[in-house]
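Hi support team,

I submitted a single chain yesterday and got back a structure, but I'm not sure I'm reading the token output correctly. Could someone confirm the output below corresponds to the sequence I sent? I've pasted both exactly as they appear in my results page.

Thanks,
R.
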Amino acid sequence: MTVMTDVLNPLCGPNGASAVYGPQKGASPADVAVLDAALAHFAEVVVRDLGVDAATQPGTGAAGGLSYGLVVGCRAAITRGFQHLSELLGLDALLRDVDWVLTGEGRLDTQTLSGKGPLELARQAGTHRKPVVAFAGKVEPEALKGPLPFVATVQVSPPGWSEADPASRAGAAELLTAAVATWAAQRRSESR
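Hi R., thanks for writing in. Yes, this is the structure output for that exact sequence:
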């Protein structure tokens, strides 16, 4: 079994699943501490009872630790998902025939810039000199510091929008559709 992931976070600790992704899902600092302690305890039990020590392996924190469970329970191997899918899809050939590349992310933040799919897609598109626009539910200002492989980043959520609020997420598809339509209309008017 192969687990494809583009994040390299371990299961626990300051860069683990709870610490990095918990706040994105609405976990408070106290919640993060409880979640991280629970995962660390689970990893100790796995080492004790199964003799498998994988909690510090890069990528085991992906999907809230799902990849860790697959590694220890199914002896799965973790691989970089973007590269694997890129090869399967023949992405290089596809990129040659496009004018623009549009990509998306729930939250464009420093985690995006550590190797997630949108960043890797932009890098690959850049080798073909194709401009890339990133649409995101939320764009964190710290992610925009320094050089980026995107020609534009577009935040699709309105002010006050909260990803932790299920009612806010319910309209995400409409927000994205409207943002892409607005961007496309601006491109058309600029090209005239």
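A quick pointer for reading it: Strands lie at 2-5, 77-80, 101-108, 132-139, 152-155. Let us know if anything else looks off.

Best,
Support desk
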